[in-house]
Automatic annotation (TrEMBL):
GO terms classed as biological process: DNA recombination; DNA repair
Pfam families: HHH_5, RuvA_C, RuvA_N
Gene3D superfamilies listed in its UniProt record: 5' to 3' exonuclease, C-terminal subdomain, DNA helicase RuvA subunit, C-terminal domain, Nucleic acid-binding proteins
GO CC terms in record: cytoplasm; Holliday junction helicase complex; Holliday junction resolvase complex
Family annotation (InterPro entries): DNA_helicase_Holl-junc_RuvA_I, Hlx-hairpin-Hlx_DNA-bd_motif, NA-bd_OB-fold, RuvA, RuvA_2-like, RuvA_C, RuvA_C_sf
Record text about domains: Has three domains with a flexible linker between the domains II and III and assumes an 'L' shape. Domain III is highly mobile and contacts RuvB.
Helix-hairpin-helix DNA-binding motif class domain: residues covered: 72-91, 107-126
Region called Domain III, residue ranges: 153-200
SMART domains: HhH1
Keywords: ATP-binding, Cytoplasm, DNA damage, DNA recombination, DNA repair, DNA-binding, Helicase, Hydrolase, Nucleotide-binding
Record protein name field: Holliday junction branch migration complex subunit RuvA
Source superkingdom: Bacteria
Gene name linked to the record: ruvA
């Protein structure tokens, strides 16, 4: 059983990504392959779930352990297959999904593909009270994602904080950070480069 693959993201398609590790390209089906766009051509750690059937062996890829845990929990529900579980994770906010299950909000759940009223009730019946750990983990993960400066060099961190103070939003800054990380500059130089990139 695979836990994760650490390799280079070599291809991104509407249905799957390809991660090359040890000269082998692994095709990983993901809920939203384009969520891995920022990792294209770079080394990435992708958590995997191996799904075995009589006629096929499929690898599903996830950005986090929490996403995979939620996927596996959804698979345990009668009437939910891998395709439906992946669609639910891909199109929904995890904390909102868990909140809907805990609140027995079947109307929210029926907005997902292939989830009717009966399946929504089954999800609530099978999973209510069993997702508190993953709820906490997702909250932590989201806070970490909101901290744009995590893992950056001191000079780049200062530049990002200065740009935030100037009024640039997180969405704009997220787009340019990967390009800035490739450079080794002073804070002032980072700011000038960021401004050039954002005004292109």
């Amino acid at each position: 059983m695979y836990d994760y693959i650490n390799g280079t993201v070599t291809d991104i398609t509407p249905e799957f990504i390809v991660v090359e590790a040890g000269q082998v390209g692994y095709q990983l089906i993901t809920g939203n392959p384009f969520a891995f766009q920022s990792m294209s051509g770079q080394t990435a750690k992708v958590f995997v779930y191996q799904h075995v059937r009589e006629d096929s062996l499929t690898l599903f890829g996830f950005k986090t352990k929490e996403e995979r845990f939620l996927f596996k929990k959804l698979l345990s529900v009668s009437g939910i297959g891998p395709k439906s579980a992946l669609a639910i994770i891909a199109t929904g906010d995890a904390n909102a999904l868990i909140g809907a299950i805990e609140a027995e909000d079947d109307v929210y759940l029926t907005k997902f593909p292939s989830v009717g009223k009966k399946t929504a009730r089954q999800i609530i019946l099978d999973l209510k009270g069993k997702l508190s750990d993953v709820d906490t983990s997702f909250a932590k993960m989201q806070r970490k994602e909101e901290d744009l400066t995590a893992g950056l060099t001191e000079a780049l961190e200062e530049a990002i904080l200065a740009l935030e103070a100037l009024g640039y939003n997180k969405k704009e800054l997220k787009k340019v950070i990967p390009k800035l990380e490739k450079e080794d500059l002073s804070s002032d130089a980072y700011i000038k480069l960021a401004l050039q990139l954002m005004t292109k």
